[in-house]
Amino acid sequence: MSRTFTVKPSPDVVVDYLADFTHAEEWDPGTVSCTRLDDGPIRVGSRFHNESKIAGVSTELTYELVTLDADKVVLRGENDSATSTDTISVVELPRGAGSEITYEAVIEAKGLGKLAEPLMKLVFERIGSETEEKMTEVLNSRFA
Fold it and tell me: Least C-beta-crowded within 10 Å: which of 34, 42, 47, 96?
């Protein structure tokens, strides 16, 4: 699932906000709760426990912040049945007009979960649109 969209805040604000994955509770429609598993500043190696409910199915993944650059955040989540990699790239719009975000989520099923991949692709495409809408709304209202 991949979406590209624009928001009003600058890239540094967007990256700082999205790197703290506990904020997923605000912008990810599937996230029920997300808690930090370590302390200190958000940095590469920060870990998060994410509980989600997607299409009526509850799941828990442990995410790790694997990349944190001025223009990119990459979080990788894993459990026994899947690995999820969320890559968020942020580009400054001309004349300080905000940011363009490209959000890509790649879910790789393990074991028997691979049988459901075609159906899950359809579900995640719908969720991608909801995520784009919610992330835009939250970033634009929170940092207006």
Answer: 96
